[in-house]
Amino acid sequence: MLRPKVHFAQVPLTVAKKALADELRRKKAAERAQVSGKKQATLEKVAVGECSKARIKMASPAFDIFQVQDSGVLWLGSAATAEDAKEQVRQMAARAPGKYLLFDQKTGTKQVMELHSVGGNLHLPDAQG
Q1: CA–CA separation, 67 vs 100, rounded Å?
Q2: pLDDT per residue over 21-59, tens digit each?
Q3: Percent of the chain's residues with pLDDT above 90
Q4: What's the domain count of the chain?
Q5: CA-to-CA distance for 41 and 54, rounded, in angstroms?
Q6: Domain limits at 24?
């Protein structure tokens, strides 16, 4: 079995110190570049995230509209205001009368609208029956 031979050359201490100092400088520079790259990436993510959040806040509708079915609920769309949501439900119910659920994303409240067709006109059934 062959054993590798290692050769150590004697070098002046100043040369060894200089080589070590150079190596440390390279490592620190690489770490700084990596950290600054991470900071830059983080800043970019934060900036993009803040813009996205602002865009979502500005554009996100406040009400979700669902159709109540035997198997659960089916999301149909969304609206900015309660009045818009109710109008959309009336339009949808003209084609498919039944139960619809309005969900207010801000307050978490739910409102069920049950629209039936009587003589071609839609109406809300009485609360009593």
Answers
A1: 4
A2: 888 888 888 777 776 666 566 655 655 555 555 554 555
A3: 27
A4: 2
A5: 20
A6: 11-59
DSSP one-letter code for 96: S
The H-assigned helical ranges of 10-129 are 13-59, 82-95
Closest CA to 62 of 35, 44, 46, 84: 84
pTM over 0.70: no
Asked if 65 and 90 touch (Cβ cutoff 8 Å), the reply is no
In a domain, 93, yes or no: yes
Could you give the CA distance from residue 123 to residue 117 in angstroms, rounded to a whole number? Answer: 7
Tell me, yes or no, whether 53 and 86 share the same domain: no
Helix, strand, coil shares of the chain, percent, nearest 5, are 45, 25, 25
**Within-domain flag for 4:** no
